[in-house]
Amino acid sequence: MGRLAHSHGDFLCPVCNKVFPLQRMLTRHLKCHSSVKKHMCCYCAKGFNDTFDLKRHMRTHTGIRPYGCELCEKAFTQRCSLESHLKKIHGVTQQYAYRERRSKIFVCEDCGFTSVSGEEYFLHMRERHPGSPALRRYFRRTAPALPASWEQCCCTRGTICDSQPLGPSAVPGTHNQ
């Protein structure tokens, strides 16, 4: 796909000549040159090739800034922006071992709530945003054996209702009758 560039292990984009250290990074980058955009912003209709880029873009509309600086009042839409700020403004360099993962935070894209606990995030979503597409995606991933109607509602009618939160604790057919 890409050809080797300036040094051993570098991969060159044949469209814009940008250099990448890994083939998978070049492969991901090549999608940006495609005219087909699968993921559209519901605020401005700008298209993106993957959900990560769309989510990052959507935060420019929603104002959600989940990465707050503990040394001042600034907050950022991306972790890398916070880390850059810490280094440039406060002289703090983050130290991570090779391939070490940073601690994950769960971000509610509806209201900006953040948590380091997936369970706390799930409870927030179930209580505050029961109709959220993010919650439906969670149930599709964690409970593939549930009936398809549970993607819309926790009752057997298959319609949207708000009498009970969506989730595995909901018993199908016990309300909306």
From TrEMBL:
Keyword check for Cell wall biogenesis/degradation: no
The keyword Zinc belongs to this UniProt entry's keyword annotation: yes
One Pfam family this sequence matches: zf-C2H2
Bilayer-spanning residue ranges: none
SUPFAM superfamilies recorded: beta-beta-alpha zinc fingers
Major localisation: nucleus
Residues of the C2H2-type domain: 11-38, 39-66, 67-95
SMART domains per UniProt: ZnF_C2H2 (SM00355)
Subcellular location: Nucleus
Name assigned to this protein: mRNAion factor ovo-like protein 3
Organism of this sequence: Huso huso (Beluga)
